[in-house]
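Render this sequence as a predicted structure.
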Amino acid sequence: INSFSATYQYLKDGSILAFGQPRGNDFVTHNYEFYVQDTWRATPKLTVTMGLHYEYDTPPYEVNGLQVGTTPGLDTYFANRVYAQANGIPANQLPNQDRLTYTLNGPVNGQPGWFRADKNNFAPRLALAYQWKQKTVVRLGAGMLYDTYGNDLVANVSKLGSVGLSTTLGTPVSYNFTTSPRYGSGVLPALQPAPQGGFPYTPPNIAAISGTYYGIDPSLHAPYSYLLNASVQHQLADHYTIEVGYVGRLSRAQLIQSDIYAPLIYFKDQKSGQTWVQADTALRNIYNTGVTASAVSKNPSLIPANAFVEDMFPGLANYYIPGSATANYYYGIYGVNAGSDLDNLHQLDRVTSSQFPNCITITGCYTFFAPQGSADPTWTNAGNANYHALVATVRKSFSSGFAFDFNYTWSHSIDNGSGVASGTGQFGGILQNVFAPSLNRGDSNFDMRHQFNANALYELPVGTGKKLLGSAPRWLDTAVGGWQLSGLMRVASGVPLTIAGSGVFPTNYWESSLAIPNGAAPKTGLFIDNNGNPSLFQNTNAVNAYQDAFPGGTGERGIVRMPWQKNVDLTLTKVFRMPWENHTLTFRADAFNVFNFVNFINDNSNSINGLSLALSSPSTFGEFAKAADARVLQLALRYSF
């Protein structure tokens, strides 16, 4: 043991629970739904169906009053920060010096809850069915749908806790083999005393890359979607039909987490009119030409003066190396902080010294950064998504011992964050640039452009009344007749994958960099690479085709895709009728992935995608770590009576 920590749990009156004593959270919400519908036969060929759905969800609350909110509300707090950066106002000049105070909220405490009740969730529906010709039907439909949205928030709060109701303290020093209690007294030193509890609570300012809070936007409301569909169905011949259609879903105001503690990366220098993003992007362009920090240390004139840097950080002149503030700023990014723009800004805007007791930033500490923490992921309605699909089906109903369905979908799903739906965690689940949500727009994590699937049922033509052994005696028919073969086939194009950057921070401290292309993209597919391992690329040097996102950038979601996936399952069944009434014995043999296709998967247990897709792992870049199940055979007997 070289360090240890303790987590203290508080009640709302500020008292501390004893270690080992659980503090339960019980949340309550109520859901009310009503639906009315009417079907009108307008003409013998036209049927109109109309409906109206209403849903009301009460905001969830904790029955013991163990819930907190902020003053000001997080929506107001964030709006103030956006206004400040656009007008070149340092965040430290905002009300209460840009700090949040946490107070008890919710109906049990006689206060408003996490967000207001949304009472206007009326969702109309309309459907038309028109018999165009004797064997052709046209269908059109549109509707609106509101989501139930309180459960995700409750799970988040219950799992992560609330500010002011828990605190974790670690040992002030680390131990080594000489000083560790394990090799000395054998007794751990006393824990640090818990700080005083109670509300209101204002977290202290920090000067370190630490402190993550979680919040809920008090202006949150129900996410909603517009559902669209149109199809034409035609009967080709007896037992055969074909259907072609369109399916769409336009989702708005979806739940997504936004880091409202993100530094003011669009802060505008009032003298030059330049923003931090513009300044750091200009320096990144110089770095991409091959100008290294080492070269700058020998010749600072390689870096031309940048107006934003010279205005905001004049104290940097001669700080690391003899030279201008801009040359030292450049050296700080690429020589001291390994290319991490935010780490460099953190040292200038939050770290004090005897030389700079109020930070190097000309307008003082916390001009850019929030003073109380490094991240505050907050549930907001900033998510948007669109799904469009062409669907086609050919179907044969059961006749002559055979039936099948063949389906094809050509679709595209786009959003600015898929994490809530797909469970992929932070990569894709939040807005990396909270000030520009559209930058996170890309292919959904679950987007499959092409999907083919088919199912079939075939009655083997053997036994009484069939083509083969149609006159077989009963004992023979019992053995060879009545066998059925069924199968499922699925072929799909690969889902998008995200390439992690090298671990630097270009935009905020909740997500590190995602990669962007660095020239022509390498060929992707299923290969054996130079290490002899299955890989998405032909060679691990494909890593050189990508680079970290630019300052203020989000990287590129879905920059590559998984290989195509394919699978076939077969089932053979036979029902034996027993001598007693209603007694049967069913034999079933299943073969899952009968052709033993190798389908690699992106399991989140390894790297961000379950395969090595990070710029920080060049030696294994693109190599797969896990495959789906191989062929599985299963036998079953079932006796029914």
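Summary. Confidence is low (pLDDT under 50) at residues 421-428. The chain is about 15% helix and 35% strand.
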